[in-house]
Amino acid sequence: MTPRAGRVLVSTSGAQAAAFFREIARTRTVWWVRDDDGSPTPASSSGQPTFPYWSSKTRAQRAAQLWGPQFRAVSMPLDHWRSAALQDLAKDDFRVGINWSGQRLTGWDFTVADVVNRLVHALDESPGTDHPA
After folding, report:
1. What's the CA angle centered on 91, arms 87 and 92, to 5 degrees?
2. Which superkingdom does the taxonomy of this entry point to (predicted)?
3. Taking 60 as the threshold, does the pLDDT of residue 87 lie above it?
4. Which of 32, 68, 82, 116 would suit a FRET pair with 125, their CA atoms being 20 to 30 Å apart?
């Protein structure tokens, strides 16, 4: 398919990633999936472990249903995610999955540094603002 002039084609994963940052900037909440033993951390295409997050309860609940009945969606305040959870992921060399969707829960994953950079832009902060991660 040839794109028409003036139109930009965006992949579903790209659209999901853009929605993630837009939505968490608005709601100040991040969602993840867990059971009593912890959270699924599938490997990225590079083989690194990835911790997936979603921008809404509905999105996270869909993922939980696909992973199994023992899983549930859990929320986290954006400030805690930014100051604590992302730091822990960076320390352990995890990638961050963003709004994975579909029957196989696929989508983009980023380094923690990339997530922090995109978050700064989504929150319309100057890059020099001192935030951990």
Report:
1. 120
2. Bacteria
3. yes
4. 32
Number of domains in the chain: 1
Question: Would you say residue 76 lies in a domain?
Answer: yes
Note the pLDDT tens digit of each residue in 10-37: 467 778 888 999 999 999 999 999 999 9
The verdict on residue 26 lying in a domain is no
CA-CA-CA-CA torsion sign (38, 44, 49, 52): negative
Asked whether residue 80 is domain-assigned, the answer is yes
Decide: 81 and 29 in contact? Cβ < 8 Å: no
Its domain, for residue 55, covers 31-122
The reported pTM is 0.83
Contact 123, 29 (CB under 8 A): no
pLDDT beyond 60 at 94: yes
Helices (H), 1-133: 12-27, 57-67, 78-80, 86-91, 112-122
CATH number of the domain bearing residue 54: 3.40.1350
